[in-house]
Amino acid sequence: MILDRILEHKRAELRRKKSRGYLAKLKGRIADRPAPSGFINALEEAYAADSPALIAEVKKASPSQGLMRPEFADLYEPSGIASTYKEHGAAAVSVLTDQEFFQGHLDHLASVKDHVGLPVLNKEFMIEDIQFYEARAHGADAVLLIVAALDRIQLEDFYSLAKGLALDVLVETHNESEVDRTLERIPDATLIGINNRDLKTFSTDLSVTQRLARRIPSEKVIVSESGIHKREDVVQILEAGAKAMLVGESLVRADDIGAKIQDLRGTAGQEDEASRPVQGTRWI
Nearest 10 degrees: CA dihedral of 278, 279, 280, 283? Predict the structure, then answer.
């Protein structure tokens, strides 16, 4: 399974990073960083204004699709593409930082945060404490915990570590048992992701959001992830109870990213002035 391959490589990668000097360097960099901005708050505000909130993902490549677009490094560098997301109403940005399988980098995260200013999620396979310090040191406002990649103790400990670093947490689930484990082990978790992608086949099915959302209390912020390509998909997940959507591939691959965002948001065809945010109000 691809997740097993990724985690095996990630463990080897992190073994090379473990040193007191590296951790001290990260802590020094954290001390120079401003406090994280509220990732969850941004989604809730956006959902209240014009649902669902959009977490737009900077994604250079994937194990199943390869390079998303050949010119990514030139015309669509991380901060450039994230600026387009912001311009067209994204509430937050997700940045993939895994290098081996997704051609990401922690520097991409720092660049997006420093140049764009929206709340940023570090999209990474978090399996060691050091990664949380890396995320915070490079400007992350939130981190991802993939339930399928963690045991029960890790899930609890990593959630506590993230909160101790003032990071919001998106807890990603794929099936009923993972949702139940999340609600049982970390009942304070506010942001719960439902990934519509099968980890074995990499196929997507939006009915996963429909099925799992029924198990999640209404006060939680449900984020539907993967397989969202058109407005009809957005309507489907919204009706299922999702308050936010994480979209990467369909945006990065689009000929016109701004137009694609408008299509997903249901604002295509509106006058530019009408679709701009009113001062003091968040639109997505």
Answer: 30
